[in-house]
């Protein structure tokens, strides 16, 4: 009995040492949280690529869904420096129209959105000061005509020795002074917007029909504001019957067939920029279209905060789709950095689970949705930067039907 008790006590004392020996040999319980084998398994599981979604599509279904297959096309893409910016009005083809005289607006000849021609009347203003300016001009014209006759008569009398040289010089001085007065009066009419043709016509009517044309008709106070260029009225800040003051902008007319693309170039971009270089302008509003412009000016000062330089691109606004203040990007083409790229039709790229994918045919009736990284657009095609090889056979058309079927399958699996 004592022997059994002593043996049990000895086993109790030896058990911890046995467990310690087992632990020291490097063993770990299977499935232990901190075990080495468990960590390696977790790492391998994390590195294992996700399974690519696939579809089994028979030849008959491929025909019904309009699926055509082929390989990506190789193309040469010109290198480009991509700059961001906004569209602005072409300041060389934009005009603000105002009146240099106070007066009351009698009528309007144009409204916002109207296309107007150079010389077209935009507004008529009753300006009493214009009547006074015309009167001064006509009086100066009459005075000059009288002085001219007196001077010519004096020259004739001088030849007949019926008048002395001093009197002839006096009349010549009066003629010169009258000519100067008429020039000043004519300049005033020009400053009010009356062109040379109308000024000459006014003086001609006054001289030819002094007895037939009433003075009030010759000196009417109605000032016509005209457009100085062909363009579109983009602003109007005046109403019929409104009293206006000089210098207040009433209309803004701009030729929208060309716009300025004002881009921000980083300091590192400057070596790639030069006046006259081609620039492809694009906007997210019309992702399938581009406008070809030409770099016209590179700014001379670097902005202290943004560290950028303003670059101006003259951009023909074909179709008048581009609008001032629209956000844009400009690709400054650089032939020296052209490269070979792979392109696919735009419709070949679909979005699945937030990724851009193309459907690669692995067997004649099996397609895999492979994630890719699309690049810039080239017409109706898209550059593929990553995820596709030149030898891959993909669905060039009908990819949307494959995506729809894949979505249907994934929802059914859930």
What does this entry look like structurally?
It is a single chain. This protein is 32% helix and 35% strand. The protein has eight helices and 22 strands. By secondary structure, it is α+β, with helices and mostly antiparallel strands. Helix 4 runs antiparallel to helix 5 and helix 4 crosses helix 6.
Give a quick rundown of the structure.
By secondary structure, the chain is an alpha+beta fold.
How are the elements arranged and paired?
Blueprint: H1 2-24, H2 36-47, E1 54-56, H3 59-64, E2 68-70, E3 73-89, E4 94-98, E5 103-108, E6 115-116, E7 121-126, H4 128-159, H5 165-191, H6 196-208, H7 215-218, E8 222-226, E9 231-236, E10 243-244, E11 249-254, E12 258-266, E13 278-282, E14 291-298, E15 308-316, E16 327-345, E17 350-352, E18 355-363, E19 366-371, E20 373-378, E21 381-386, E22 394-397, H8 399-413
Beta percentage is 35-45%
- First CA to last CA: what distance? 68 Å
Placed side by side, the strands forming the largest sheet appear as: 3-12-15-14-13-16
The whole-number mean of residue pLDDT values reads: 83
CATH topology of the largest domain: conserved putative lor/sdh protein from methanococcus maripaludis s2 fold
Helix content: 25-40%
Number of domains as seen in the coordinates? 4
How many helices? The count is 8
Q: Which class best fits the helix and strand makeup?
A: alpha+beta
The Cα radius of gyration reads 43 Å
């Amino acid at each position: 009995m004592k022997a059994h008790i002593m043996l049990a006590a000895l086993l109790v004392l030896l058990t911890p040492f046995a467990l310690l020996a087992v632990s020291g040999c490097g063993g770990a319980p299977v499935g232990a949280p901190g075990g080495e084998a468990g960590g390696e398994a977790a790492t391998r599981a994390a590195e294992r690529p996700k399974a690519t979604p696939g579809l089994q599509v028979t030849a008959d279904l491929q025909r019904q869904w309009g699926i055509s297959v082929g390989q990506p096309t190789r193309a040469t893409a010109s290198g480009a420096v991509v700059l961001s910016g906004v569209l602005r009005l072409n300041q060389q083809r934009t005009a603000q129209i105002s009146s240099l005289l106070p007066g009351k607006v009698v009528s309007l000849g144009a409204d916002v959105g109207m296309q107007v021609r150079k010389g077209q009347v935009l507004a008529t203003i009753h300006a009493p000061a214009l009547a006074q300016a015309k009167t001064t001009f006509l009086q100066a014209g009459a005075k000059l005509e009288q002085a001219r006759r007196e001077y010519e008569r004096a020259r004739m009398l001088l030849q007949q020795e019926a008048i002395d040289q001093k009197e002839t010089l006096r009349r010549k001085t009066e003629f010169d002074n009258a000519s100067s007065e008429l020039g000043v009066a004519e300049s005033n009419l020009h400053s009010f917007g009356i062109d040379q043709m109308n000024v000459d016509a006014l003086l001609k009517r006054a001289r030819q029909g002094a007895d037939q044309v009433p003075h009030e008709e010759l000196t009417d106070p109605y000032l016509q504001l005209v457009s100085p260029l062909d363009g579109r009225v983009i602003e109007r800040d005046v109403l019929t019957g409104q009293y206006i003051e000089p210098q207040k902008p009433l209309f803004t007319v701009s030729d929208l067939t060309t716009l300025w693309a004002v881009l921000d170039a980083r300091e590192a971009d400057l070596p790639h920029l030069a006046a006259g270089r081609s620039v492809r302008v694009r906007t997210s509003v019309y992702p399938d279209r581009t406008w070809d412009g030409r770099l016209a000016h590179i700014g001379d000062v670097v902005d202290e905060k943004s560290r950028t330089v303003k670059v101006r691109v003259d951009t023909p606004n074909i179709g008048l789709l581009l609008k001032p203040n629209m956000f844009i990007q400009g690709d400054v083409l650089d032939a020296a950095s052209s490269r070979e790229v792979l392109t696919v039709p735009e419709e070949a790229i679909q979005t699945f689970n937030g990724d851009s994918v193309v459907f690669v045919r692995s067997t004649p009736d099996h397609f895999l949705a492979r994630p890719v990284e699309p690049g810039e657009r080239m017409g109706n095609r898209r550059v593929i930067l990553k995820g596709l090889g030149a030898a891959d056979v993909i669905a060039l058309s009908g990819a949307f039907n494959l995506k729809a079927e894949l979505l249907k399958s994934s929802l059914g699996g859930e």
